[in-house]
């Protein structure tokens, strides 16, 4: 059984360990989970991640309850039986989905996952990031999945539903060293039905267009605006920057007291920081792609070696993957050593 330390990282370490345990069949024990956080231990969304992994692998689990600082996970064989879980309130449905995506390399039939909770909540990728940024990017190296937002869920009530279908995959090596020229930006702006009269989703798009013009970015902008039913009012905006087969994503969430136009501008601020670099992927995707570099091989240029990247690589290496990081001016290259 692998011994892992979760003290220096957040929930990403738990998700990475679960993903690689499913794929490799290796059991693990992680101690000091989220030990450096103000409220350490597993949160509701982490418990949901453990629950779906347990179901898929018929695993023996000890310590998989909320507040637990130690988790033992011992998988058996992976199956493609449908899985469903409720995170509770507004816990992130997208992060639960992220946990299962790598199982694509270990299944023979499509696997369906339905998660109830928050589809668009802070500190996690919005549902449209998963749909319109990660999905097309993964398809470039042979990983296919579908995402359907059955109902939006915003903070604090959640109540959203996300359905994900993961197809079996034999991915090709990741090859993301250079960034092709920017082809255009797709904007996905969503708000609760209750905010339709105030045109909040439309105004978020206006904020994006105004901020892009101020940055001097001249590129085609296509916008999709939606007002969806939800239990709690909320908004989100996602920018998908298209550079050939490469897609980078940037998002922002609405909050009380912040004008919708400013929310759109916040997403552009994140885009502008990335656009000034040579990295093909955004900083959040950089962290998410590390598992795929381990599983499929290849290399990816990332904007920076953050603490998230360092701790995530520690877990990946513990599962036996030889990953090299070469820091360069303006970023780093992460590569699996063959």
Automatic annotation (TrEMBL):
Gene: rtcA
Compartments where located: Cytoplasm
Protein name: RNA 3'-terminal phosphate cyclase
Known function: Catalyzes the conversion of 3'-phosphate to a 2',3'-cyclic phosphodiester at the end of RNA. The mechanism of action of the enzyme occurs in 3 steps: (A) adenylation of the enzyme by ATP; (B) transfer of adenylate to an RNA-N3'P to produce RNA-N3'PP5'A; (C) and attack of the adjacent 2'-hydroxyl on the 3'-phosphorus in the diester linkage to produce the cyclic end product. The biological role of this enzyme is unknown but it is likely to function in some aspects of cellular RNA processing.
Catalytic activity: a 3'-end 3'-phospho-ribonucleotide-RNA + ATP = a 3'-end 2',3'-cyclophospho-ribonucleotide-RNA + AMP + diphosphate
A single MF term (Gene Ontology): RNA-3'-phosphate cyclase activity
Enzyme class: ligase
Positions of the catalytic residues: 308
EC code(s) of this entry: 6.5.1.4
């Amino acid at each position: 059984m692998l011994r892992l330390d979760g003290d220096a990282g957040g929930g990403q370490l738990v998700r990475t360990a679960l993903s690689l345990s499913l794929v490799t069949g290796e059991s693990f024990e992680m101690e000091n989970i989220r030990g450096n956080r103000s409220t350490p231990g597993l949160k509701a969304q982490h418990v949901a991640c453990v629950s779906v992994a347990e179901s898929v692998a018929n695993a023996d689990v000890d310590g998989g309850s909320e507040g637990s600082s130690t988790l033992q996970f011992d998988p058996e064989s992976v199956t493609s039986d449908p899985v469903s879980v409720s995170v509770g309130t507004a816990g992130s449905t997208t992060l639960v989905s992220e946990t299962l995506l790598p199982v694509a390399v270990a299944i023979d039939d499509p696997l369906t996952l339905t998660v109830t909770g928050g589809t668009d909540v802070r500190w996690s990728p919005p549902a449209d990031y998963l749909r319109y940024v990660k999905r097309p990017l993964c398809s470039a190296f042979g990983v296919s999945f579908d995402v359907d937002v059955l109902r939006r869920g915003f903070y604090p009530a959640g109540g959203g539903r996300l359905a994900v279908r993961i197809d079996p995959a034999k991915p090709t090596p990741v090859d993301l060293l250079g960034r092709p020229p920017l082809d255009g930006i797709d904007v996905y702006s969503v708000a609760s039905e209750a905010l339709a009269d105030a045109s909040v989703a439309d105004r978020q798009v206006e904020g994006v267009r105004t901020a892009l013009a101020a940055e001097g970015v001249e590129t085609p902008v296509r916008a999709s605006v939606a007002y969806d039913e939800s239990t709690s009012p909320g908004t989100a905006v996602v920018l998908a920057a298209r550079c050939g087969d490469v897609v980078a994503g940037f998002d922002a969430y609405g909050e009380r007291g912040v004008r919708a136009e400013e929310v759109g501008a916040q997403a552009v601020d994140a885009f502008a920081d990335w656009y000034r670099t040579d990295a093909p992927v955004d900083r959040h995707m950089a962290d998410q792609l590390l598992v795929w570099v381990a599983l499929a091989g290849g290399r990816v240029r990332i904007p920076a070696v953050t603490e998230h990247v360092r701790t995530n690589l520690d877990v990946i290496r513990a599962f036996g993957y030889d990953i090299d990081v070469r820091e360069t001016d303006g970023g780093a290259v992460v590569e699996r050593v063959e």
